[in-house]
Write the structure tokens for this entry.
Amino acid sequence: MSSTLLLLFLAVIDGRGITVTSEGTITSRPAVYYPQTAWSQRLEGLVSAVLTLDADGNVADANIVSGPLALRRTVLESVLSWKYEPSGTSGRQVLVRVAFRTVEGLPDPAVEVSVRPRVLKRVDPIYPDEARRVRYQGTVVLEATVQADGSVRVERIVRSLDGPATPGMDRAAIEALEQWRFAPALKNGIPVPVVLTIEVQFNLR
């Protein structure tokens, strides 16, 4: 008797310099952006939050436990709208960490443009056969340029998911992302390239 695996892919586009890690499985969340003032001052840091979930995986309460004060609000505003895989039990807590890192000499395009890029076409990655066979799951984090024509160029791997027994996860994420198309970011009405951090999450259900 054969069984069918449901492949779930979550792609989140955070502002440049943002890296998110979380316990549990996130099924949807809005992006996190670098506050303009904090970026201008080159303020970096790690914000940690403890989220309390209801039985359906919604965030019922969020408590920022550490991190620079100027970076806490943007994290709190985002995490209150996150949704996790339901557990059927209220009160489960998960730890979230959001790292903010500036890049010398580069402005933060996510906050300086007047209109942020918007996804027009998304392509899900092809789950590598070996990874699917052993039910290997996780998140690849990529830094990519959304160019003025809406095409995507991956710049680097921020967080790899490849392992000795499960190669190909990073490549699958990159090949899929480079097929995405965006309505480009606008600055004063003119399309401009921007660099964003994009999560591609592989889940088997």
Residues 109 and 194 are 5 Å apart (CA to CA).
